[in-house]
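Because discrete structure vocabularies remain unfamiliar, it helps to consider an illustrative case, giving the amino acid sequence and backbone structure tokens:
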Amino acid sequence: MNMTIGEAARATGVTEHTLRAWERRYQLFTPVRGNSGYRLYDDAALATIKAMQALVAAGWAPSTAADELSRRPQAVPSLAAAAGSQADPFAGLVDAAAEFDAAAISRIIDEQFALAEYESVIDGWLMPALVRLGKEWAAGRLTIAEEHLVSNIVLRRLSAAYDAAGRQQPGAPILVGSVSGVEHELGLMAFAVAARRAGVPTVYLGTQVPAADWCRAARKAGSQHSITSAHRKRDAQLAIQLAETLGPTSTVWVGGSAQQRTAPACRPLGHSIAAAAQALAAELGPDRQAS
């Protein structure tokens, strides 16, 4: 069914001005013109808009999201399905969590990963879904047990993806994890998978690693790069302390909502796991060649 630009804006939640800008700048979709001369958006155009919206909502820059969708055209309908034709793309997962239905949670997550490439699902659906679950818990609509059930199922799925990404790449590895006092793990594990898929050698340390032990592991592995996360001001301070412990010959890269607070002691990764993994692989390529 074709929609006018106003109807498309209401259906997707993207303003008319933004729709025109995306059409003009990125040429991802080309609305047909009706007899009256007005733009009309078909199902394919709406799917592309929803895919674009999902990536932008996950923190991608519009230009980067457009490049991603152009490079992986098969992901457009998949991400549209992840975004859902309904207004709430996470309703099924939230409902399954509220019912404490592990089988349904696993099925929903597996279905999403079957729809598109790993990186697209991580940034376009999984990370926003986890944010939504956190908000449901904060509002009292989910218990800690229900939220943890989802988190543990996701962690098992990511661990399997990490193993499936292949054996350890040659060269000194990048250490990925969080220091003592920081418990956020899923984003770090998701990044470790994306980095390995991008060809970056990684060792996943997990959470609650004392800075001194991290430093010792880095010396044993010959690692000069570490990845951690900062979601609160306190996390940012802990990341800075890790960088100070590791010393000036090491680089600490930081993701998470408070990552900018760690600069200049650390290097922010940005808010797209896929883009960060690719950028890191490109920057460290010569280092790995020399290893």
Residues 118-138 form the longest helix (21 residues). The longest strand covers residues 202-209. The chain has 13 helices and eight strands.
